[in-house]
Design a protein that fits this description.
alpha/beta; five-stranded parallel β-sheet; binds adenosine-5'-triphosphate; Rossmann fold; Beta-Lactamase; 18 helices; binds magnesium ion; 3 domains; globular; Helicase, Ruva Protein, domain 3
Length: about 425
Amino acid sequence: MLATAIEGLAGAALVLDGRRRVRLATPAAVKLLGTKIPRGALVTELLCAGRTKRPLADALDAGQPVRAVIPMPGGPPGRLLHVRAIPHPTPRPRAFVLLLEAANESASDGPVLFHGMWTQDARMKEVFRVIERVAADDDTVLVRGETGSGKELVAGAIHALSARRKGPLRVINCAALPSNLLESELFGHVRGSFTGAHRDTPGHIQLAHKGTLFLDEVAELPLDVQAKLLRVLETHTVIPIGGRDPLPVDVRVVSATHRALRKEVEAGRFRADLLYRLRVIPIFLAPLRERPDDLGLLCDKLVLDMNPGRRRKIERVAPAALAILARHAWPGNVRELRNVLAYAYAMGDGPLLLPADLPPELLSPAVAAAPAARDETGEAPTAMSDDIARLRDALRRADGNRERAAAALGISRVTLWRRMREQGLLRQR
Ligand SMILES: Nc1ncnc2c1ncn2[C@@H]1O[C@H](COP(=O)(O)OP(=O)(O)OP(=O)(O)O)[C@@H](O)[C@H]1O
Ligand SMILES: [Mg+2]
């Protein structure tokens, strides 16, 4: 009777006990998964093929809510399953209800444009559908992707599709400021709280009231700031630096990082409790080198965008040039592609983009690194082994001008600065 009632309310669902074992499966869940589900089956075996490092398995383990998209167990490649995990509000160990829903069969084969993002890649299209489904709710979203892969566009799309669209979208880059400044920017401060604090100043959190707060490069948050942020998320209030009274705030938090936050947690650099707070909806953006069909499409769309107002009008990319582009690893992803095209506008003539129009780095095999291997979470590591050499080389060519070096690498100035810091290329002061 219980199974029938749950099915009537929620369709395909699994009820788990505190040890992640299936106590009840509705008939629709059995049909959807296309397999017998023995009572007591371990849900990670059933849904994650025993892998414990997926965001879903990870959140279940921690007793935390999550909404994830995973490969359909036993299904053909490309079929996906939406899973919404709702923990029962008991003390640990937590029981769960999992609501399951098959993703639509890939709606169209052709290119789509979604809030400034072009793609014809099936995984990217699924990301767009996830964004459409989750935008209306206030659940936190964590976007992971390499530099230039569209993380900020995703944050913009979530805000634009939510009821908060009339409210503010505040962006703060957690990597760009030293700890004390970051704290004051985020939480605000009251008059007299430190030298130079001449008046009460609201922080980004308060300024995002009734809107969306986008925490870019969230992995770089110092641990003490992480603790304060966690408090804000738990209490929906903020206490400015030097202030006493908590002020109520109504914000939806979207964060982004190029790192695997779970690894940051394991290394002791990121709080596990904050990770689960921020990652109710995990979104992974595949790097451009893993979306081979998107390369030609993006070239076509980007030149349409870039032609107006330029001396040269590019109509087509010659197959030989496209072949060279396809060999490149694109560490700077779509931003880097845009910069390569900008170079081609300047260097060549005529409607056909030729190999000779491409920057020399693309023609030398040393830089066209092989696609990085995938780790066991199914996500590609972002670190490039030749990072230092590339950084040094770009800085040398740009006579040490970071702005130009960043442009040549197809990364933002902040990303360049961060990488220089990571690689020990910043002079210590
Ligand atoms: N799918 C896409 N279609 C068209 N343009 C794109 C797409 N993805 C990214 N871009 C463009 O590439 C550039 C980088 O995108 P964005 O700033 O969103 O990346 P990011 O992941 O936030 O990068 P970073 O980590 O360096 O901050 C922007 O100019 C954006 O408009
Ligand atoms: Mg960004």
